[in-house]
Structure formats: C-alpha cells, structure tokens
Amino acid sequence: MAARDKNCKHKAETMTSDSKNKNEAANQTLKYLSLVTLTGQNAVLGLSMRYARTRPGDMFISTTAVFLAELLKLFTCLGLVWNAEDRSWKQFWSALDKTIIKQPMDTVKVMVPSAVYLIQNNLLYVAASNLDVATYQITYQLKILTTAMFAVTMLGKKLLPTQWFSLLLLVAGVAMVQLSDVKEVKSAGPEQSKFVGFSAALTACFLSGFAGVYFEKILKGSDISVWMRNVQLAMLSVPLGLLTSYVKDGGIISDNGFFHGYDNFVWFTVAQNALGGLLVAVVVKYADNILKGFACSLAIIITCVASIFIFDFSLSLQFSAGASLVIGSIFLYGYQPAKPGLPEKI
User: What is the per-residue pLDDT across 175-231, written as a single tens digit (0 to 9) for each?
Assistant: First the structure.
C-alpha cells in the first residue's frame, strides 16, 4: 500500500513537472513571438508611412487615413469586448451601458488622451512626409524621454541613475542624427522640409508621452479592461477625426472625394496604424524590458538597411554614431539591475 502511494506521488510529481516545462516552453515561444512582432511592427510601419507619402501618383489625404484608422480601431475593440463578454449581446450591451453610459465623467476623462492621440497621429504623417524614414524612426524614440518626464512629474516615478544617463545619450544621439546631412534620393511627393518634419515629430513625442502617462494614470486602480478603455478613447477620436478631415481638407475632399489616392497599400498602412498599437498591447506583456529594447533597436537597424535599398538612403558616419547612441540608450533605459539577494534579470 505504501509502495503504491509512493508510486502515485511520483507520477503526480512527474506530471506536474511536465506541465511546468510545457508552460515554460509556451512562455518562451510567446516571448520570442513578441520580439518578432514588435520588431516587425516598429520597422514596417515607419517604412510604410514614408513610402505611402513619397511615392509617385495621387496622394491620399492623411487626415482621412487617421480617421479611418480610429474607426477600424473602434470596431476591433468593440469586437474584443463582445468576445470577452462570452459573445452575448445582452452582456455586451450591459458592459457598455455600465462602463460608458452610466459613468459619463469617467468617459470624459478618457476623452483627454483621445484628442491628444488624434493630434499626434496627424503629426506623425507630417513627420513621415518630411523626414527620411531612418531619421523619423530615430527621432521618434524621443518619446522615451517625454514619457519619462511625464512619469516623473505626473506619477511620481523615480528613475535610476542609469536611466537618467540613458536619456542624455538619447538626446545626444537624436541631435547627431538631425544635424547629419543624410538624404534619400528616391523620394517623390510634395516639397519636404526637415525643420517641419522634426518639429512635427518632436511635438508628437511630447503628446505621446503625456497621453501615455495620463492613460496609465486612469488605468491604475480601475477594473475596466484595456479594450473597453480604447472604446472610450474612440468615442471622441472618431467624430473628431472626421471633423478634422473636413475642417483641414474639406476643399480637397469635395473636389476629389474622401478616398482619393487610396489603394491596397494605403489601406495596409491604415490597418497598421489602427491595429499595430493593439497588437503590441497584447504581446508586450510577454516581453521584458531588455527584449522590448532589443526589438526597438533591431527595428531601427532594419529601417536603416531597408531605406538604403528602397529609398537609396545614404548613411554618414555622424548619422551612424547618433543611431548607435540611440540604440545604446534604449538598452540602458530598459535595463533593471538585480536587487540585493535576487538573481539578475536577463
């Protein structure tokens, strides 16, 4: 009897160990899938926006693209909320009624980052139209600096000395990149201004930092899902995006139509803008800071290499040095030293 109990216990321990190993293997797979997804999303989006704004042919209206991205994001999040409510229309409507209709002040709070994100997305198209894709990609990393600034001032976050140093490296790297004389040869489209592009990217970085930290502050202490929060965000961004399209480009829309210049590639770019952030929100929880930094850095390298072949981009020593500083700063900012008595996190 004792031998049988011992044998059963051994089998149970073996099954538990096998189950644990399978879970660890699954998590490792998801971790590296996150790495690939983040790298691809970061690299392809920048290249797509730049190509869509500089290729020959009819130019699409960027404000309509921002509106359509917000609309697609809204329908996607509504679908995810419906799925989370066991695909029951009754539960789905009850969740919307409880979260949005019966909590109007909470919804109004979420509308602040909603408007900010809308302005930011429009500015990113301005930046992509005026900066070569490698410079755009590197300059936009300044959102790490602005997010840190707002996290310190709004959330009371404490930064490590290494993180402060990494932010200095980041600023120095971006400055070197901006002051370099690199250029793309194969870029058509409207007249480009590096100053306008940098101003748009820098403003977008500040807006991204503020909206991200504000949104994090709202999410803390709330049991509302990220998908429902995104539905709340879209409640203002969709109508405001449509209004912006007609206020800014109403004449062009009237003459050429709302979908002027749209083709499959533009729709692909719109879908990337809409779903990219949501996709990252799903997979980023499986990747630690080091992997996220690696994904972002690898995306910068891929963008630079791809630009050489797609846009006939010319690298310079100053640009390469600045890019190296930015990549190093991303790694350093995400590095978390081990606490005393604990193993170092890799």
Answer: 999 888 777 765 655 678 889 999 999 999 999 999 988 887 887 767 788 788 888
8 A C-beta contact, residue 229 and residue 219: yes
Higher pLDDT, residue 164 or 278: 164
The residues, ordered by sequence, that sit 6+ positions from 80 with a Cβ below 8 Å of its Cβ are 227
Per-residue confidence band for 104, with pLDDT thresholds at 50, 70 and 90: confident
Q: Does any domain span residue 312?
A: no
- Which of helix, strand or coil describes residue 313? strand
Find tokens 């500083």 and name the residue: 325
Tens of pLDDT, residue by residue over 3-22, are 555 565 555 555 555 555 66
Containing structural domain, residue 104:
44-160+186-288
Interatomic CA distance for residues 185 and 213, integer angstroms:
38
Nearest to 218 by CA among 122, 141, 105: 105
Q: Is residue 11 part of a domain?
A: no
Task: Give me the phi and psi of 184, to 5 degrees please.
Answer: -100, 140
Domain assignment of residue 250, yes or no: yes
The single-letter DSSP state of residue 102 is S
Supply the pTM of this predicted model: 0.82
Tally the C-alpha atoms within 13 A of residue 7's C-alpha that lie toward its C-beta. 4
Residues of the chain with pLDDT > 90: what percent?
40
Contact by Cβ (8 Å): 174, 142: yes
Q: State the burial class of residue 89 (Cβ atoms within 10 Å of its Cβ: 0-12, 13-18, 19+).
A: exposed
* Cβ–Cβ < 8 Å for 207, 120: yes
Do the domain assignments include residue 137? yes
User: Residue 222: which region, alpha, beta or left (left: phi > 0; alpha: psi -120 to 50)?
Assistant: beta
How many distinct structural domains can be found in the chain? 1
Q: Residue 261 region, left (φ>0) first, then alpha (ψ -120 to 50), else beta?
A: left
How far apart (Å, rounded) are the C-alpha atoms in residues 346 and 342? 12
